[in-house]
């Protein structure tokens, strides 16, 4: 690949740019979300397509802000502030996926956008989603450590 094969930021161009993005539809988070997190992370490592530790922890940080706000509440539905936070989270995830193919693949495999859409205004579902994100980060760290050792 020569100099002219890179975009203005020095990254390789997205080879799937001509393919339209798929429609994101709401999906419920599976009850076995910890097992699902392990499967997702192992599949990424098996294919050598891994999201960076910094990127995955930044996504967890955004989810944790919403989780911490809702963890103090007892209502069945999330607050307006948390609903706005979920919208901002979706936007940030899509933006990061547009910049980094590893993030895009991670979002697709983990079905994060689908699960966020499936939360609705349910506080309980939000709490489970936050735990799913924690499990993704935990398995990312665990498998990374195992590969290094």
TrEMBL record:
Entry-linked InterPro entries: CRISPR-assoc_prot_Csm2_III-A
TM annotation in the entry: none
Query: GO biological process: any one?
Result: defense response to virus
Start-end of Polar residues biased regions: 1-17
Q: What is the lineage of its organism?
A: Bacteria, Bacillati, Bacillota, Clostridia, Eubacteriales
**Domain of life from the UniProt record:** Bacteria
Tell me the protein's name.
Answer: CRISPR system Cms protein Csm2
Name the coiled-coil region(s).
Answer: none
Classification via NCBIfam families? cas_TM1810_Csm2
Q: Does the keyword RNA-binding apply?
A: yes
- Renumbered to this chain, region (Disordered) spans 1-29
Q: From what organism does this protein derive?
A: Brotocaccenecus cirricatena
Name the Pfam families for this protein: Csm2_III-A (PF03750)
